[in-house]
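Quick one - inputs below.
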Amino acid sequence: MDHGTVIEATKAVVTLDVPLPGIIWGWMITLNMWAKSIGTGVILVGAFLLYRHKKEEMPNLRWMMPLISFIALNVFLLFTLVDLHQPLRMIHIFTHPHWTSAITVGAWMASLFTGLITLMTAIGFLDAYPDVARHSGIAKAIRKMSGFYETIFPFVVFLALPVTMYTAIIMAQSSARELWAAPAELIQMLMAAFMVGSASLILIAGKWSAEAKRDLAMVLALSVFFSFIMYMGEYFFSFKAAEVEATLTYIHEGGSYQLQFWSAMVLGYIIPFFIAMGSMKEESRVLMKFAALTTLIGLYLAKSTWLEIPQMIPLS
Amino acid sequence: MKLGFLVDLNLCMGCKGCEIACKVENEVPLSSWRLRVKYIDVGTFPDTSRNFTPLRCNHCENAPCERICPVSALHYLDNGIVNIDNERCIGCAGCMMACPYGAIYMDPETNTADKCTYCAHRIEGGLMPACVVACPVEANIFGDVEDETSHISRYIMEHQGDVQVRKPEKHTNPKHFYVGGGNNTLNPLAHERIEGYGLFNNITHLKTLGDPHHSILERFTGPIFGHEHLDNKSFVDMDNDDSHESHKEGGHH
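Output:
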């Protein structure tokens, strides 16, 4: 017993209770959210670049954009499935859907989105490499529907928005965790997609025009700026809600979560912001790639902190 | 009909008879509880008191667990009970994240979510829930809160002003009431959990949620090929020594 502990006379002390479950949604859900942000973010940022620039300025975008999205979405779906305690029953979401649940709506949208991205990846890749699988019947059929890529792209961009944001509604439906408020989380999810979407594209933008790269730097700078402002607002000014304040003590009062949170802020937000701002004036390819990598790492750490701390407080 | 529960905390003496009756009736595995009685000590020596609070599913009228469940495994019965279908549950733990009362657990034997059902199987047969029958002081009162003549309705009317629910600000409309409760007993933010001050210390957590012998791969292969059967002895034999309550559990220190 720690005899040095002082308990206020008005405070009650729990003297018998069963252990709390601790972290229920852990690193797999963090990875799930992080990968989904990349999967949707590259599409949103890619669409913005295609709106602003000629596609000749970004020669590999047409096939690399859906390919990155495809890989990220499959990581997202894999860890969604693996995190289930009965993964084979995932099919129940499609056979017994419960439409009030954001998990259900999200699963349906994400599945459709992944299907369309798969098609875009196949078309984009086979068009970019006409010599690959020239005699394959399937490849021929896909090449024939090349124009379908541009037809479905606007719908895919539109679908990327709810797919990236539905996790915020799942968090909002998690009534036990007051830190996750829908308005803030919706914007944070959107900003996260723009952050890692631009970061991922920076890594493949070597031969792109300077103007396109400047736009990428601008998207990165703006998204990390607004996301950082929101985190700071929640960090410093969430004292009105008792449960949120209690949750944030896991960051405020030191320990591993404080270190993790501020590491996330420095790596994912502060460093990329200044590098991206500098790169908008004078391009620095190496520094921008460094900023892209720190953004990807920082967002993972930020998501992990924000996911885990609300699960630490006792509910009963 | 809307079935509800009321616990008169002035009567409860913390014997945990209800807890054990529930365990036996519903074959709740070790490490899991559908109903538990929490002890809270208040005051400074020698003016101290110990309060007992039975905690179970609140069977909310506006249940967040039912809303978030992607497959309707959690569903309302006509009598207001929030029931769970283990055969449909996919084990996403969304309900555990949604329940503001921490009343849902992942059953380590079935790897599905589970919770108090007000002993729906007994109700169907015209019996009272096991915890009600076991209570030696009749602190647990169960019945139809929409029937003005029921015992629970009359009890609520007789104790107007002293009837509370947990976390009313969550707008879940719980159908589980407390008489004689206070901020200390019903608000988890109002008390502290300090290692060394409990009746049992160095309490260990399970390392995993759900079946600890069920690896990620076995989650896929188990339902098809079967897997190692888990029994209570498995929990006793488990090595949990690196996961003590003092540094893993939340609370306000």
